[in-house]
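Purpose: get a first structural picture of the assembly so the mutagenesis plan has something to point at.
Setup: two entries, given in the order below. No constraints added.
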Amino acid sequence: MKFLSLVWSNLKRKKLRTSLTMLSLCVAFILFGLLSAIKESFSAGVELAGADRLIVRHKVSLIMTLPVAYKARMERVEGVAAVTHQTWFNGIYQDEPKNFFASMPVEPEPFLAMYPEYVLPAEQKEAWLKTRTGVIVGRTLAERFNWKIGDRVPLMSPIWPRKGDEAWTFDIVGIYDGEKKGTDTSGFYFRHDYFDEGRAQGEGEVGWYSVRIQDPEQAAATAAAIDAEFANSPYETKAEPEGAFIQGFAQQIGDIGAILTAILSAVFFTILLVTGNTMAQAVRERTEEIGVLKSMGFTNELVLALVLAESCLIAAVGGLSGLGLAWLFISAGNPAPTMLSVFYLPNHYLGIGVGLVLALGLVAGIFPAIQAMRLQIAVALRRNA
Amino acid sequence: MSTGQEVLVRVENVEKTFRRGSEEVHVLSGMNLDVPSGEFLALMGPSGSGKTTLLNLIGGLDRTTTGSVKIGSERLDQMSDRQLAAWRARHVGFVFQFYNLMPALNAERNVELPLLLTHLSRAQRKRHVQTALEVVGLSHRAKHYPRTLSGGEQQRVGIARAIVTDPTLLLCDEPTGDLDRKSGDEILSLLQALNQDQGKTIVMVTHDPHASNRATRTVYLEKGQLSAEKPE
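Result (structure tokens, whole complex):
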């Protein structure tokens, strides 16, 4: 600790250079935080996907529907414990395309049993079962539009127009929360019976099935059995684990993880050069001072440690303030709820960030530190003479 | 060369060779020197004669090519880098021509630097620093940064830094070389007082006969050889 003030004093001697380096680090770590939150948004569903759930969709494409009658046949397949279905509704609120969110007709009881991670108070569940036009919305979505229980919400769907071209109207009867932090609470789930009777076409068809299986170890075999059941029919199926389904869905717009990793790698490589250059300059400018310190009895190892400490301190001040600002920004709310179903910075990314700060400090400082460590005292002092 | 007192510094058959490109430069050859404890020795000679090299060898800042340097009972040429660093921290204080203070630290924190290598507490270090600054007459400038001090004051801080650990040996490389006559005289008086009142053994490299007159003995170095008489 007694050397910390010496390290800090050295940083203060070139205030502008140190500040700019710290600012660069700060910006890089803000970017790291934000991109990590975005990456998490795309991968959270995969991580939280039930290991015992399969998604069964039309073999050709997700946008093609399946008969509702498949449900009973699926329930009879060996290894299947429960089946329910959903359909992509593509609802738009107040006729504004930006007011888009995930909206699906579902069967209330089987749906809630299939997705226990959606936490809904019992009285709200009762209200949903009693109200034909009832809808439950996630907490994030309710906050986005300031909805509360009792509100009536009109939606338009370009895929599923209502008979008579009227707007679909729903009564909010429940607001669900997520069991875990990353659970998507931006959904809008309404009753399939109301939807099926009201839609202008496609009666008796559903988007996809969610299937709970008895043994997650047998997921592949059960998926194969389901697909075999509907082979050579007009509606052949593709069954896959829920995680793989969500990942495939996300990858329709590209491998988000790889894209973000590439961006961050470029940013950190640049920052490494900036910080490394700062440290190299700092050591070069202080050649004589390093010689003087050694003449007083500072060992080579201590000089190495002091330069590394300086580098790590720059990285820590810049990087940790960047992480902090990113965390504040992310905590302020989801800036793009249409695109990102969840938006938060998980603790493990904060841990990775702190690790990166330390690694950056060490790597940026190691070469100048070794240079300082190897510096011969007589040579260092001669430079001044 | 001995005055009969106990020898503190013994330089024996020392050779120092530097390599400049493909050429070998012999800076010191067959050098012998004894410095008794409590002596104030001036080391004079023309530029490039090897004065600073000899001082660096005595201070453990550099290593001999052959021969030995013994301070008290310890052979510097046989020590590892780490042992040498620990020895410097305990036994030697350096005063440089250009003061070599840390510009980012104020006077008292410059003086405190060697004490960071000790196990002294913060309060003990503070007391030692105050004492050293009082000795050089600069306690009223303790909070001043080097850029706000005159050359003479900076050199006083440099001397305070050199004596704060109470070393047996003070090595001064042209301590008045960057100062005007008046400031130079003050520094020389200070070194003299440290020698006479506190018994510090001082080896001072200088070009200046006026400075060497303050020493108890002067030796001359030319072409890598020492003599008691000024060469013609």
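The beta strands of chain B are 7-20, 23-36, 40-44, 66-71, 74-75, 92-95, 169-173, 201-205, 217-222, 225-227.
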